[in-house]
C-alpha cells in the first residue's frame, strides 16, 4: 500500500525520536537528566487539580466546539490585562498550542504555498506545514547575531507569489530570542506590503528575562487583522499534560474557517478546560517566582556551557532552551552515544539533536537544544556530564 | 487575504451549525430536547472521576506521544477479549476518535485521492477528507434497503486509479446499520483486489440491538494488515467530554506514519487517559444495562416516528440515531423554524439537517438525523413535538 506523500515527508520529532534510547537507558538503571524536552518541573498551581475535583456532573458530556465560555472569558480578561483587547469571538480553545498551529497551517497553505519562518524553529512547525502540503522558507538566524532577524530588505527578498504567512515563535523556541519592537514592526511592514498573515507562537510570553518590556504581535495595532496568536497554558502554568491552548485572532474570516476545523473534532476536553480556567486565577506572584527561578537556571546552564571548550552558544533572553553548537560532527550520534554508552556516576543526559530545528539542509548537525526546565542542581550536574562526555567522546 | 481552498470547501458541521439557534431558544426560556447531537445522558461510570481525583502528582507533565501505557494495556486487553489480538505497538491514543480519523485521512490521501464511503455518513468524515484534499466517492444507501450495501460488483465499479481507502462506520452513524459478515467479506475482497486500506469507525460497537453476533472488521483475519480501526470511549462509557480515542492497526507502516503525527502534537491529555483507563474496568453489566436502555429508546423513537404521517425511516440495528425523511422540502429550514418560531407548551426539539450527511448533491434535503441518547419520557415528548410541528409547519 502507498500512503500519502505528506506522511513520508512529515519529520519525526527530533525532541521525541530519541526517547526509546532514553527509556532503554532508564531500564538499565541509569539516571537520565531530560534536557531534550521542554517539560517544566515547576509545580502546577493547585487550583487546576481542585477545579477538576470540584466537578460534580454525572455525565462527562461534549462541550462547545469553540471551547467553554468560562475559560474563554478568563483568556479574554488575561489579554485585556496585557493590553490586547479581545472579545469572546476572538478566541478558540484548542487541544494544546499544537492543534492551534496545525489548524493555522491548514487554513493558510494550499499545496506549494510558502510560510516564512526564522530558523532554527520548533520542529512541529515543519510537521504541521508538511501536513498542509506547504513549504517552509527559512530565515536563517545565528547564535553570533543573537538569533536576531536580518534587515527588512533581506527578509523581503524571500517573498514570492506563493508566500502566505510569516510564522514566528516569540520568545523563541529553541533560540531564546525575544524580538524587539523594531523587528516586529519590520515584519508588520512586510505583512502589509505583501498581504500576509503573521502567526505568532507566544506560549513562552511569561518567560522573558530582560528588563525592557515584551512586545507581542498583538500590540501592533496596524496589523490587528493580520495577526493570529497561538497560546497555551502548558508552559505558563506548568501544565503541559492538560493539552489546552488557543487560537486568538481579530481576523474574522480566519476565525470562521478555524471554527469549522474545531467543529469537525467536536470539542476540547471538558475537565481540562475547567482546570485551565482556574489556572488563570493564579496570583501573579506565581509567574514572577517562576520567572526568577528560570532566569537563575538560564544563568547556570549558559555559564556552564560557556565554560566547556568548543561549545558555542548565546545567552537566551526568553523561553527555557539553549541552542548550543558542540565540537562534534554529528550531534545526534553524540546524544545517542551519551544515552547508550556513556555515564558519569551512573548518570547521563538527553538532548534534542539540532538538525530537525532547521529547514536548510546541513544546518544544525553539530547543534543540540537543551532545556533548562530542570532544578538548578540537576542543571549543574548536566553540565558536568556533558563536559565529561565531550572530553572522552570517541566519535 | 486568501486562505486555503480546503478551508472553504471544509463543511460546517450540520450537527453543530444550528447550535446558535438552539442557544437563542434556550435564552428565550424554551426547553429544547437536544436530538441533534449524540450526547448520551447515561451516567459516566464513577471510576473515571475517581481516577482523576486519585492523581497526586505535583506537575501535570507531558505524557508519551503514543499514549499512556496504562491505557494502552487496557485497550489491548479489551480487544483481546473480543478476539482481536493486539500488542501495545498496534494502539495509538488520540484526542477522541476525531483526531484518529483526521490523521487516518491525512495518511491515506494525496490531493485528489478518493475514499469510498457509504452515504449517509458522519459529516466530520467530509471535513477530515477535505482537510487532506481527498475526495469522497459515495456508495448511496437507502432506508428502503435498510441502508445495506449494494452487491460487490456495484461497489467495485466505483474503484478508480485514485481510490485509496474504504471508510465505514459500523454500527453506522447516522443510519444505525450493522453490517453483516457477508457485507464485510465483500469489502475485504474489494480491498485485497485493489490494494486498499479499510478504515472502520467502530465507536458504537457496544450499541448493537440484534441477537446475531457483531462482526468487527478486525475479525476478518485475511485483511488484518489492511484494517485501521477507529475507537473511542465517548459513547461506550458516556464520556464524550474526555476526548479519548485511539487508532488500532496491525499495519506497521501506517502506524509508524501515524506516530509522527502523534509526536507533532505532543501527547493526548494525561489525566483524561488515567480516567479512560479506569473506565475499561467498568463491569460488563454496565454495558448490558446501557444497551438494554438504548434498545428501548430506539423502539420508542422508531415507533413514534412511524406513527407520524409522511415520516419515512428504518428501524436501526445499532448506534443511537435514526435518519428520518420528513414531509418537508427543506429539513434545515424546518429545524430552524422549530427552534425559532415553534413551541409546544414552551418546548421544542433540535435535530441535525440531513444534507450534510451526504456527498451526492441534492440528497438528504428532506431528512434529519435524530439521536435517541435521551430519556424515554423525553423521547416521547420529542415525538409529540415533531408531530405537532409537522402538522402546523407553514413551509
Automatic annotation (TrEMBL), chains A, B:
<dbReference type="InterPro" id="IPR004838">
    <property type="entry name" value="NHTrfase_class1_PyrdxlP-BS"/>
</dbReference>
<dbReference type="Pfam" id="PF00155">
    <property type="entry name" value="Aminotran_1_2"/>
</dbReference>
<dbReference type="InterPro" id="IPR004839">
    <property type="entry name" value="Aminotransferase_I/II_large"/>
</dbReference>
<protein>
    <recommendedName>
        <fullName>Aminotransferase</fullName>
        <ecNumber>2.6.1.-</ecNumber>
    </recommendedName>
</protein>
<keyword id="KW-0032">Aminotransferase</keyword>
<dbReference type="GO" id="GO:0008483">
    <property type="term" value="F:transaminase activity"/>
</dbReference>
<comment type="similarity">
    <text>Belongs to the class-I pyridoxal-phosphate-dependent aminotransferase family.</text>
</comment>
<dbReference type="GO" id="GO:0030170">
    <property type="term" value="F:pyridoxal phosphate binding"/>
</dbReference>
<dbReference type="InterPro" id="IPR015421">
    <property type="entry name" value="PyrdxlP-dep_Trfase_major"/>
</dbReference>
<feature type="domain" description="Aminotransferase class I/classII large">
    <location>
        <begin position="32"/>
        <end position="385"/>
    </location>
</feature>
<dbReference type="InterPro" id="IPR015422">
    <property type="entry name" value="PyrdxlP-dep_Trfase_small"/>
</dbReference>
<dbReference type="GO" id="GO:0006520">
    <property type="term" value="P:amino acid metabolic process"/>
</dbReference>
<dbReference type="InterPro" id="IPR015424">
    <property type="entry name" value="PyrdxlP-dep_Trfase"/>
</dbReference>
<keyword id="KW-0663">Pyridoxal phosphate</keyword>
<keyword id="KW-0808">Transferase</keyword>
<dbReference type="InterPro" id="IPR050596">
    <property type="entry name" value="AspAT/PAT-like"/>
</dbReference>
Amino acid at each position: 500500500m502507498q500512503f500519502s506523500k505528506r506522511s513520508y515527508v512529515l519529520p519525526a520529532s527530533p525532541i521525541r525520536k530519541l526517547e526509546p534510547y532514553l527509556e532503554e537507558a532508564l531500564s538499565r538503571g541509569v539516571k537520565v537528566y531530560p534536557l531534550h524536552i521542554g517539560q517544566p518541573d515547576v509545580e502546577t498551581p493547585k487550583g487546576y487539580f481542585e477545579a477538576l475535583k470540584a466537578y460534580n456532573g454525572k455525565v462527562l458530556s461534549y462541550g462547545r466546539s469553540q471551547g467553554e465560555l468560562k475559560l474563554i472569558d478568563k483568556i479574554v480578561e488575561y489579554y485585556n490585562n496585557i493590553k490586547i483587547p479581545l472579545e469572546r469571538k476572538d478566541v478558540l480553545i484548542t487541544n494544546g498550542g499544537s492543534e492551534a498551529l496545525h489548524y493555522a497551517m491548514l487554513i493558510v497553505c494550499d499545496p506549494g504555498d510558502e510560510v516564512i519562518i526564522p530558523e532554527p524553529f520548533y520542529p512541529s512547525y515543519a510537521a504541521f506545514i508538511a501536513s498542509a502540503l506547504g513549504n517552509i522558507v527559512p530565515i536563517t538566524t545565528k547564535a553570533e547575531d543573537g538569533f536576531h532577524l536580518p534587515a527588512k530588505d533581506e527578509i523581503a527578498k524571500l517573498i514570492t507569489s506563493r508566500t502566505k504567512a510569516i510564522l514566528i515563535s516569540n520568545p523563541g523556541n529553541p533560540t531564546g530570542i525575544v524580538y524587539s519592537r523594531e523587528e516586529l514592526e519590520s515584519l508588520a511592514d512586510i505583512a502589509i506590503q505583501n498581504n500576509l498573515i503573521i502567526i505568532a507562537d507566544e506560549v513562552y510570553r511569561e518567560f522573558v528575562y530582560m528588563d525592557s518590556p515584551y512586545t507581542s504581535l498583538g500590540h501592533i495595532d496596524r496589523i490587528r487583522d493580520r495577526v493570529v496568536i497561538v497560546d497555551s497554558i502548558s508552559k505558563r502554568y506548568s501544565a503541559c499534560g492538560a493539552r489546552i491552548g488557543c487560537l486568538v485572532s481579530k481576523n474574522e474570516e480566519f476565525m470562521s474557517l478555524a471554527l469549522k476545523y474545531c467543529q469537525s473534532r467536536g470539542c476540547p476536553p471538558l475537565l481540562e478546560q475547567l482546570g485551565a480556567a482556574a489556572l488563570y486565577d493564579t496570583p501573579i506572584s506565581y509567574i514572577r517566582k517562576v520567572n526568577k527561578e528560570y532566569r537563575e537556571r538560564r544563568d547556570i546552564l549558559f555559564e556552564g556551557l560557556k565554560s566547556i571548550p568548543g561549545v558555542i552558544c548565546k545567552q537566551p533572553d526568553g523561553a527555557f532552551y539553549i541552542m548550543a553548537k558542540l565540537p562534534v560532527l554529528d550531534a545526534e550520534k553524540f546524544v545517542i552515544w551519551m544515552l547508550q554508552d556513556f555515564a558519569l556516576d551512573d548518570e547521563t543526559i538527553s538532548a534534542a539533536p539540532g538538525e530537525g530545528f532547521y529547514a536548510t539542509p546541513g544546518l544544525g548537525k553539530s547543534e543540540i537544544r537543551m532545556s533548562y526546565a530542570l532544578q538548578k542542581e540537576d542543571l549543574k550536574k548536566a553540565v558536568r556530564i556533558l563536559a565529561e562526555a565531550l572530553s572522552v567522546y570517541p566519535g
